[in-house]
# Entry
Amino acid sequence: MTLALPFAPRRVVIGANAHAELAAWLRARRPELEVRGAPVPSISADDLAWGEVYVGFRRPQTPTLGNIRWVHCTGAGVDAWMAPVEISREVLLTRTPESFGPAIAEWALSRALCFRLEVMSLAQAQAAREWKAREIPMLAGTKVLAVGTGDVGSAVARAFRGLGCEVTGVSRTGRTNEPAFRAVYPVAALPHLVGEADWIVLTLPSTPATYHLFSRDILSRCRGAVLLNAGRGAVVEESALPEALDAGWLSGAALDVFEVEPLPTTSPLWNHPRVMISPHASGPTTTDGAGLGFLECLGDLEAGRLPSRWVVDRERGY
Ligand code: GLV
# Structure
């Protein structure tokens, strides 16, 4: 990365459906910024020839990034900028400081509670006016394996821990500072750990190292866990999920992300009775979060320093 610091870009291109909101938010706080925006498919080569910094989650469909010298990704996962072809390393790539942990923790907890407290089956019984007496178990006392222990995985761990679950973590390094984890292990321990878990919560980015980490082999070692994936679809060998559910390796799945998005209408996951699908919505980017995150990084660059915490490590992919 060869950006000369301080770097005070003034021409900002926003690629997002909510571009108008974010543009207004930025103009209100930094009137000297010139901001253009459009939904990603409408971002043109002319926009990118004009702009100095691009703000958005998805990559424009233009052949090049024109004169853009800094890409600020408004999502946690930057895979759109790393694959199929990584953007030039001459371009600074930062990811947003916005925290998606609280929203994804709610997403995961709500799904686990639905499964454990039989919410879907109660709704079906209600629709049929059936008074089906039953004992409803609690989430407390069950075991969670959180694969990914970063900002999002730690928020997930705190949420489940708060309801009395035992939470074990798995991370690249096998370490964490988050006290909600009972213990954290490196990825190599996964084959031994998945058989112990009631809930497996994935919050991993898509990188070459995480591709199909949850392979058919790992899935076959689960002993009835519910798999919750809020990271990236490519982390799971999706074609093996129907078998994993039907064989009882998994007792259910809550999926927010898929190998191909939108999930094709032909996917058998849509109408599997033990699968809950949401449309990549567990950790929404907000205008405030995106705006503040961008201004934090911009402020660092203007002051002559790199926003080191948010500069994407091109080798790791996040
Ligand atoms: C959403 O998927 C994100 O990476 O923020």
Notes: The chain has two domains: 11-98+285-302, 101-277.
